[in-house]
# Entry
Amino acid sequence: MYNGKARAYTNIALIKYWGKKDKELILPMNNSLSLTLDAFYTETSVSFSPYHTKDSFVLDGQLQDEKATAKVSRFLDIARKKAGVNDFAQVESQNFVPTAAGLASSASGLAALAGACNDALQLGLSEKELSQLARRGSGSACRSVFGGFVEWEKGHSDDTSYAQVVPSDDWEEELAMIFILINDQQKDVSSRDGMERTVATSDFYDGWLETVSRDIQTAKQAIAAKDFQALGEVTEANGLKMHATTLAATPPFTYWSPDSLKAMNKVRQIRQTGLACYFTMDAGPNVKVLCQKKDVSAILAALQEDFTKEQLTCAYAGEGLKSLEMEVAK
# Structure
């Protein structure tokens, strides 16, 4: 029996990943840039054994159905092939983040599974190789292998698509992100389905691709210069462009809810008072507010005029993938 356990934290993209050019290898259409955060994370354990008769997947204490287990099994097959083993596995995962609500639970979940498989099967993967492996489970998971600012290089093959740290001189330690939890329920359109529909049908998608590489460079320059306003402005604009592509899809769809719009307008109002803060959203209704640590208390107080304390969670820069235990038993 081969056991492993790992923890990975969520990352929130400041410059978004939206669309695949290779669905099997999960190669993205564009580079993306994220910040790994400490508030939400996933812990996953895996046990390979010749005595298991099939793969099983338990999430938050609940045995998952065949569809969810099949996704995990496809990932396990990649790890098994690397290790040269055929044993089935039991996977247990605990999300300290709402699942499938646009809070990057798939990123932390698949990064943690990659780390657990690496330990259990004694693969000895480097961080780069772990990022490549995690990508095969969920694209954004490749970024959760690392802490701080992270760029996912889109690449053109399995070996050339991976994430790496963006040098920042630890500037991320001065930043924060406030989550406005509008809805922690599963969304109607998954990220995967939303991407596919947008790439295939949206008249705005080509425009997105034409500008996103420029946004990456702007963000990296802002990080190098520790220019918060420049980073905030490109983060907010890039997120809005991504969501605009969904409105031009066929059929059109949006991840926004009325309260999402309320939150975005509130952030603009706070900014007009002189507090620097900028919003972004992923494939879900929840709004994330990028700000500086020194302003967190004042921004939280302003947000509490419209949202409850329970809806607001503050996160700071988080660490990369962490091995929790490794045990090999016979």
